[in-house]
Amino acid sequence: MGGQPLFILEEDTERTQGKDAQSSNISAGKAVSESVRTTLGPRGMDKMLVSDDGDVVITNDGATILGEMDIEHPAAQMIVEVAESQEEDVGDGTTTASVLAGELLSKAESMLDDDVHPTTIVEGYHEAASLAQEAIDEQVIATDLDDEQLLQVAKSSMTGKGTGDVAGDVLAEVVVDAVRAVQSEDGVDRDAISLQTQIGAASSSTEVIEGVVVDEEPAHENMPRTVEDGAVAIIDGAIELQESNVDAEYNVTNVDQLNAALDAEEQELRGYAEALADLGAEIVFTTDDIDDRVQAYLAKDGILAFEDLSSDDLASIRSASGATRVSGVKALEADDLGTASVSVRSYGEDELAFVEGPEAETVTVFARGSTEHVLDEVERALQDALDVVTAALDKGGIVPGAGATEIAVAAHLRDHAASIEGRKQLAVEAFADAIDVLPRTLAENTGMDPIDALVDLRAAYDGGDCAGIISEGQTGSVTDPLEHGVIDPAAVKHEAVHSATEAATMIVRIDDVISSS
After folding, report:
1. Structure pTM?
2. Which of 39, 102, 234, 305 could be a cystine partner for 60, CB 3.0 to 4.6 Å?
3. CA atoms within 13 A on the CB side of 77
């Protein structure tokens, strides 16, 4: 039969097609991108995010901002996913990726208005992204990095972020020390670095603990609070009376039988404590409860014990102490014991246990902050710095920062655009223009004229110089970022180009949106 096609949809279903759908999706993506654009760079501004419950988050971290925003539009959500992907893979560059994705959408919108087919735009963007990856590789200045270069990477990642009372230099040293402590011939074990926060002191009190910090207090108040180089036992379970698997009933007819039963229980519990003491255990960690009477016996023997620890904490303690995790006290042998120094420190009403081993395979960055908001931002800055230093060591080295690499990438794309046939050339040129948004935004946020800054950057690159936007006082200047120690991991640039391209091309290809109520 002829006539119009018939779509069987629910009555409340809404459908947007063609250019209206493309325009709606692109506008949503651009809006999300613009929301974080002012946070880019060392002079980027902060955002205050207030939840329905009144919880306040103050940050300029792109991933945190987008994660806290209540975004419903599906296309806008794709930009959020860009930030999440960037954060998960390399730990930094979330704002860069989001801003780039928004600008790619803006350029695509102009090409769509000029009747360039979406498939042509997508193919051109993917070709441009491949060329951009080549250009980033050409900008790599070192892959075998020394501590000074790692310090510069860490400082660059924290520049512009709230770090309390301390400059990025001090925290950068903490980050590099932590990463070096878990580096081996196989690379950096990022999972071996944990981050513990505690309010109540200046950010400059942040330190690296060669071991693990757990939010626990001794099982009994009479237990020692410090044990140096003590023998460690790790019990995966409880230390209490064993329950019978048989559903049995016992008839007690006189006091002697009752006392005998109680004595048997007491003897069993005392036996657990004696077994630990006889083996030489001085510090005990368990995943479950320790009976109150066992706690008292352990305290009397001078044994420090902690109960109800998580499996993750026990894994870290095992790594720090070298102890073997066993199923119960009866399964414990002398060879299962490890060695660690444990100290319990009080911070107001909170108590933390510091477990440091002589050959610890894990480290903890113990972050401090004077207020909750400051501490949250210090934590985010440290997480990003740890991730980017790891990426710099393990994923392709470093490139100049401050927009210098982006200028080189844009120039590389324009040089190769002329060799690309058809309308895809327009998409490659548009991609180059989109890349320019990053140094342009850096200049704008620094207080410079963005157009003049972009012209000066291009002139410097054409003259064979490395130049970026360096913040100085109330404004900025176009100069060599390497002289100022502004460098970034190549992996951050690679991932930003990849994730932004994927999101933009996915949105551009959508020409029909069907939504149900």
Report:
1. 0.77
2. 39
3. 5
